[in-house]
Amino acid sequence: MSDEVNSTEKYISGAPACPGIVIGNTSLYQRVRPRVSDTQIADNETEDHICKFYEVLDIAEEELQALLENADLKESSDLIQMQIAILNDPELRERVEQEIVANNKPVDSAVESIFRNYLKVIHQNHGDTFQNKSVDISDIRDRLLQILHNKRDDIKEGTILVARELSPREIISFSNRDIKGIVTDRGGATSHAAIIARSMNIPTVVGTQKATEVISPGDEVVLDGRNGEVVVYPKKETRKKYKSLMAQQSKKQADFESLCKKPNKTSDGTTFTLQANIEFAEELSIANKYQAEGIGLLRTESIYLSREHFQNIDHQVAFYSSLLELTAPHKVTIRLFDVGGDKFFGDEEKEQNPFLGWRGIRMLLEQPELLKNQLRAIFKTSADFMGRIRILVPMISTTDEINKLKSIIDEIMQELLAEGVDIDENIPLGLMVEVPSVALKANLFAQHADFLSIGTNDLTQYTLAVDRGNERISHLYDQRHPAIWRLIKEVSEAGKQNKIPVSVCGELASDPIAACCLMGLGINTLSMNAVVLPLVKQLLRSNSYNDMQQLADKVLQAETLDDIDRIFSNWEKKE
Amino acid sequence: MIKKKVTIVNDAGLHARPAAALVKLASKFESDFYVHLYGYKVNGKSILGVMTLAAEKGAELELELDGPDEEEATEAITELIGDGFGEVYEDGNE
C-alpha cells in the first residue's frame, strides 16, 4: 500500500490503447524465469519426475489450446501452433526423460538443460538473425518451468497490471483473471498486444516509458484509457473526480449496448450508416458488439509489412475471407496497400518529405507485381462474397493514375477469368480524397470513381501544412479547421452531382459533433474506430437532420478555429 | 529405405511455420523420418530438431524415410517442401 503521507500525486502519460477509467491497486507483472534446482534425485524418484513432466506438458498444452480459440489472427495462431508442436516434440520428450533417468536430474533442471542445448545449436547455426524466433522457444520453456514451480506470477485478481511490455499471448492469458486495467512501459496503441487488450475491453495505457519505475506493487492508481493518463497516489479530490466520471461512464456503457441496437436514424428520421475502421481481425469483436454496418476502411498494410506473408496471395485471401465472414452481410472496403516506399524497400529509399513523396498509388503503379498480387487476392476472395467488397485507392492525385489502375484491374480480371476463377466482376472502385487538389476538383474525380471516401487525417495535414507528428507545431493540427469543412463540402456536392456515394473514414468522423456536421453536409456514411461508435450514434440519433444542416452552415461560415470551438461548444450546451 | 534430395524454395527458409507444417505432416506417417543437412542429421518429426537446421532458401536437404509407408511419406513431404510450404512468392521483379 502506498504511504499516504510521503506519496504525492504523480501523473504519467502514455498512448491510450483502450478507453475506460479504472481506479485500483496495482500488481507488477514480471516475466519470471524460475531458478532450477541443482540437486540430484534418487533412482526411485525418477519415475515421479517423469510423470510430473508429462503433467506439465498437458497443462501447458491446455493453456495454449485455450489461447488458440482467441487467436483470430493468422500470426498469433501460427505462433501458438508452433509452441504446441514443441510440447509434442517426440525427441524433446525422449531427451528430457533420458536426462532424468540417466543423470538423476530433477525435472525442472532436465527441461532447462535440454532446451539450453537446443537453443545453443539454433544460435550456432542461425547466428543472431534467429534471435527473434528463438524468443518463442524460450517463452515456452519458461512457461513449463513456471508451471513446474507453481509460480505463476504476482498478479492479484481485480488489480491494474503494470508491466514493462506484454506479448499477445500474455494478454490473452489474463482473460480469466479479472484484470481491471493495463499499464505498460513499452508498445504503441497499434501494436498487436494493444489491439488484443482493446478487443477484450480492458482499459489500457501503453508506452508510458516509466510506469514500472514510478509505480510499486500495491500502489493505488487511476487509469484513464480515454486519454492515456495514469495518476499514481491520487489525491482525495482526484479520486472523487474520477469516481463520478466512472459512474457516468458505466451508465453510458450500459446505455451503449441498448443504444446500438436501435436504428440508425436522426430524431427526424433521416437514416445514416456507421462503419468501422479495421486493421486486425481482433478489432471486429467491438465493431460487432456496437453493430457496425461493415468496414468502411480496411487497412491492409500490416499484412504486407509482416514479412513472412509478404506477397502471398493465399494468406491475403484467407485474411480478407475471415473478415468478410465476420461482417456478413455488410460491405468491406479494402484500401490498397498504403505506405511510403521507405517502409517497404528500406532506408535507401528514405525521402526528405515522405508524406509528399512516393507513396500510396504512386508507389503501387511502379511496383506492378505488388499491386497485381493484391488485386488477384481481392478478386479471388470476391466470388464467395458477391457484392460485398469495395476497393479504395489511397493517395490519388491525378486522373491518369486512375486510368492506369483501371487497366491493370481489367488485366487481372481477364487473367483470372481465363484461368476459370470465379470473380465478382462489379467490384466498386473508390478514391480516397486526401490530397487537397482532389477535393477542390472533386467533380472531375467523381466522374472517374464509383465512390469517394474522405481521409480527413491526411487531408488536414496537407491542407494546413502541418505534420501532426512534429510536437512543436502539432497544436496547429485540427481536423475541424474551417478550410477542411469547405473541402468536404466540395466533395459532398460532387458526389451528389455525379450520383456516387461519399463517406468519411478519417478521425473527424469519430468526433460526435463533427459527425453531426458531416451529416449536415450531406454525408451519411461514416467510418471510425469501433470504440467510438456509440458516442457518435448517440448524438446523431438525438438531433434532427435539420439542426445538423444549420450546424453545417455555421461551420462553413466560420473564419477561424476559435469560431469552430465556439460553434461546437454552443451545440454541446444545447444538449 | 528411401533417400531423396529436395531444395528449399520459399524465401524465408525453414522457419517456424514451415517447420511446424513439416513435422505435422511427417507425424501422420508411420515411417521413421530423418533430415540431413550440412552433416547434421535430425529427426524430421521433431520441430526443435528441424529448427536447429536453420535451412535457408536454396539449402538442399536429404530426406531419409524408412518404414511401411515410406513411399507415400516421401511423396507428400517432397511436395510440401517443393511447394514452398504454400508461401513461395510470385515471380516479382522487385
Structure, explained:
- The complex is a heterodimer of chains A (575) and B (94).
- Helix content of chain A is 50%, strand content 13%.
- Chain A is built from 24 helices and 16 strands.
- In chain A, the strands form two sheets. Chain A has an eight-stranded mixed beta sheet with strand order 1-8-7-3-4-5-6-2.
- Residues 1-5 of chain A have low confidence and may be disordered.
- Chain B has a single domain, classed as HPr-like (Histidine-containing Protein, Chain: A, 2-Layer Sandwich).
- The longest helix of chain B has 13 residues, at 70-82.
- Classes of the chains: A alpha/beta (575), B alpha+beta (94).
- The A-B interface holds A 78-79, 81-82, 85-86, 89-92, 118, 121-122, 125-126, 130, 133, 136-137, 307-315, 345, 367, 369-370, 373 and B 12, 15-17, 19-20, 23-24, 43, 45-49, 51-54, 86-87, 89-94.
CATH topology-level name of chain B: Histidine-containing Protein, Chain: A
CATH fourth-tier homologous superfamily of chain B: HPr-like
Q: What is the 3D form of chain A? A: globular
Q: Count of helical segments of chain A? A: 24
What is the straight-line distance between the termini of chain B? Answer: 42 Å
**Sequence stretches where pLDDT stays below 50 over 5 or more residues of chain B:** 89-94
Mean pLDDT score of chain B? 86
- Could you name the CATH class of the largest domain in chain A? Alpha Beta
The number of helical runs of chain B is 3
Determine the mean pLDDT of chain A: 88
Strand order of the largest sheet of chain B: 1-4-2-3
The class by helix and strand makeup of chain B works out as: alpha+beta
How would you spell out the order of helices and strands of chain B? Answer: EHEEHEH
* CATH T-level topology of the largest domain in chain A: TIM Barrel
Helicity level of chain B: 25-40%
Number of domains of chain A: 3
CATH top level of chain B is: Alpha Beta
Number of strands of chain B: 4
